[in-house]
Design a protein that fits this description.
Elements: H1 2-13, H2 21-33, H3 37-49, H4 57-69, H5 73-85, H6 93-104, H7 109-121, H8 129-139, H9 144-154, H10 159-184
């Protein structure tokens, strides 16, 4: 599975071989059919955006769902955004929030940013400035847009709410670290 995925990537990027879109897709399909989530995710991206294959958003979403169900954080984020925007699936804010949460809990900064947006406006989740602040604060360590969103939100928050948001950030960070450690340990 892993070797097939790697060979598919090599044919896509031209790393050690000539770029060959058909071979890239063929090897990725073999790997994806065996349940390798990285291959499912990359092939899903290919179909969703029409890279190396004819664009087929529904097929892309199907592959994203397979990878997301196998715990792939990038696919979980992508699937969440599909539900959020109604691309390839019916628009469903709660389903979007559910998939974004799974990804955010694995430490994916982009998912944390999007989840913060949902909490800020109460889309698919109960509106909560504290949760929005916490997710943007977490993502803000490496994401400028999250830092800007958090800074704007702070202007609307009391000092007490900001402290609560900071405390929630610390709690979320511990929860995420524990989940990542458990996943690495195979639990």
């Amino acid at each position: 599975m892993f070797a097939q995925y790697n060979l598919g990537r090599c044919y896509w990027t031209g790393d050690g071989v000539s770029i060959n879109k058909a071979q890239s897709v063929a090897w990725l399909r073999k790997s994806a059919s065996k349940g390798f989530s990285d291959a499912q995710f990359l092939l899903g991206f290919f179909y969703f955006d029409g890279v190396n294959v004819e664009k087929d958003v529904v097929a892309g979403v199907k592959l994203y769902r397979q990878a997301a169900s196998n715990g792939h954080p990038g696919a979980q984020e992508a699937l969440g955004l599909c539900y959020l925007n109604g691309e390839g699936v019916p628009k469903d804010d709660q389903e979007a929030a559910s998939w974004l949460l799974k990804s955010a809990e694995q430490g994916l900064v982009e998912a944390q940013f999007h989840l913060g947006r949902l909490y800020a406006v109460g889309m698919g989740v109960q509106k909560s400035r504290i949760e929005a602040y916490a997710y943007w604060n977490l993502a803000g360590t490496t994401n400028e847009t999250s830092r800007a969103s958090r800074a704007k939100l702070e202007l609307e928050m009391s000092a007490e709410d900001i402290l609560a948001g900071q405390a929630r950030t610390r709690a979320l960070q511990k929860e995420i670290e524990a989940k990542i450690a458990a996943k690495k340990a195979g639990k």
